[in-house]
Design a protein that fits this description.
494 residues, alpha/beta, globular, binds flavin-adenine dinucleotide
């Protein structure tokens, strides 16, 4: 045995650290506070409907991508997948529909039908899409050898003209008022996102490397847990870690909420960074940089409150994702909504009983809006019901008759995520700092270690600063690589 590792949390980073730890001869035990693996990669059942908390775009879904190889090592691929035809879709209040197809010829003629006067901007967009097709940029940069990484970065630099403008700025190239308003919202309704992020994502879709894992996020996480267990890894559920035990500047184990203590040579945390540092380590091993990283995250997080509807309506022919532009803004959950983004799960038959479907509307909402209701159960439930009611009102404009077809409603808020995952402000678990592009591309935009604490590593969002499943799975691999290097052991992959 190379040594023993205790891992806090069975999210993507924790499970991956366990798997690569086992591959490299470590004894591993994961302590997970919840009763299931996956963390943010979650889904749950309500009256026969499956509500997915996570996946919009899963990268690395077909051979030919290094991200696929990562998933294969982790036991998540191959698996049954569905290819959706578009990245997302946008509906105007007057019934026009822009579908951002992955088929670029179809996309071009669709856009030119929608806005014949915008041929120049459409040609530019299609050219931009083509510039990111036929490669595995993210996989090469994040998982390639130094030579492959350098080559990928050079080929990215060639695409430099597409990297700079924001979605908002690019949208201004369109004269058609609908497309001018629609384009800035294409990346999860966030106009400030650089255009190249969208083009990279779109390119992965064109290459067939973004698909949907049938059954959703929990099933995806369970396949990784299965691989971990098959390698001999141990996992204890309903086991919340309260303290990390430290002796002589070295992490030596953990103390659980039930009072039991468990010891190991190395401790890895996939839990929220702020809570790991300020609670589990009681604020020790902190310098100025770490203190700043632990500062309060922003109040608003994009689509941090979800309204799930299980409906008696066949949604198979609907787009997989839709943003409705509203002509008269509506206030929902304390925010003025000029558009409403949603996922429509008609493409996966396993998500709902036959002839029925699931819609997940994603709302912008402030943490403080919900936190003020934390001690007021009735008030909290009333706000959730109000948010659902207003969302259904808005959806009725695009799906007439929907209200009468609603069978089940569920509204998780930031407080739900916080309770479920032990995070800060729901799932806003990133350190408060700017990600350096270079370290971000290497998979560690955050920090894997703490000053003055030996034999301790972070994995997951705190280490990666990546809001992606593969980025956080990669963080588990990188932590074990770093550990092997420190112990002068070769890093092995089975
Ligand atoms: C709404 C939403 C949509 C997303 N969409 C996508 C997408 O389309 N594509 C994509 O690639 N990514 C997506 N992501 C991002 C992705 O899901 C996350 O980045 C990733 O799952 C985070 O992994 P992690 O390793 O940081 O662990 P987390 O998921 O944060 O898991 C941490 C685990 O630690 C456990 N834990 C916490 N505290 C303790 C404790 N004290 N003791 C024991 N256990 C503890 C928690 O219960 C949890 O299981 C989305 C995320 C969200 C929230």
């Amino acid at each position: 045995m190379a040594g023993s590792i205790i891992i806090i949390g069975a999210g993507m980073g924790g499970l991956a650290a366990g798997i690569y730890g086992r591959m490299n001869g470590f004894e591993t035990k994961i302590f997970e506070a919840h009763s299931l693996p996956g963390g943010q990669c979650c889904s749950w059942k309500r009256e026969g409907f499956t509500f997915d908390g996570c996946i919009h775009h899963l990268f690395g879904c077909a051979p030919g991508s290094r991200i696929y190889d990562l998933w294969r090592e982790l036991g998540a691929m191959p698996r049954e997948m569905v290819k959706t035809v578009e990245c997302t879709s946008i509906a105007s209040p007057d019934g026009r529909l822009f579908r951002d197809y992955y088929d670029l010829e179809k996309l071009e003629s669709h856009l030119k039908d929608l806005a014949p006067g915008d041929a120049a901007a459409i040609d530019a967009y299609i050219r931009g899409c083509r510039a990111f097709v036929g490669n595995d940029l993210l996989g090469d940069v994040m998982l390639g050898t130094t030579a492959e990484r350098t080559k990928a970065l050079v080929s990215m630099a060639v695409r430099l003209t597409w990297m700079m403008p924001s979605m908002e700025k690019f949208g201004k190239r369109f004269k058609d008022p609908f497309l001018r308003r629609a384009f800035p919202l294409l990346v999860y309704s966030a106009p400030s996102v650089p255009l190249f992020i969208h083009l990279v994502r779109h390119g992965y879709g064109v290459n067939g490397l973004i698909q949907w894992p049938v059954g959703g996020a929990l099933r995806f996480a369970l396949s990784i847990e299965k691989r971990y267990k098959a390698l001999g890894g141990e996992i204890a559920y309903n086991s919340k870690v309260e303290r990390i035990l430290v002796e002589n500047g070295r992490a030596v184990g953990v103390k659980l909420a039930d009072g039991s203590e468990h010891r190991a040579d190395i401790v890895i945390s996939d839990a929220d960074g702020r809570k790991t540092i300020m609670e589990m380590l009681e604020g020790r091993f902190v310098d100025d940089k770490v203190r700043k990283a632990c500062a309060e995250p922003p109040d608003t997080t994009a689509w941090s409150v979800h309204v799930y509807l299980g409906v008696k309506r066949d949604l198979a022919a609907e787009p997989s994702a839709l943003i409705m532009l509203l002509d008269d803004p509506v206030e929902i959950a304390g925010h003025r909504c000029e558009s409403l983004e949603m996922q429509i799960f008609g493409f996966d038959k396993t998500m709902a009983p036959a002839g029925k479907g699931v819609i997940k509307a994603e709302l912008f909402s402030d943490y403080s809006f919900w936190k003020r209701l934390a001690g007021d159960r009735a008030g909290y439930e009333a706000e959730k019901a109000k948010a659902a009611d207003r969302t259904i009102d808005v959806l009725e404009r695009h799906f007439p008759g929907l209200r009468a077809q609603v069978e089940t409603v569920d509204v998780p808020t930031q407080l739900t995520w916080e309770r479920y995952m032990g995070g800060t402000h729901g799932f806003a678990n990133m350190p408060t700092k700017k990600v350096s592009i270079w370290s971000g591309l290497k998979g560690v935009g955050g920090d894997m270690t703490l000053p003055g604490l030996d034999r301790f590593y972070f994995v997951g969002v705190w280490a990666s600063m990546a809001g992606s499943l593969f980025g956080n799975a990669l963080s588990g691999r990188l932590a074990i690589q770093a550990l092997c290097k420190r112990l002068k052991l070769p890093f092995k992959v089975e």
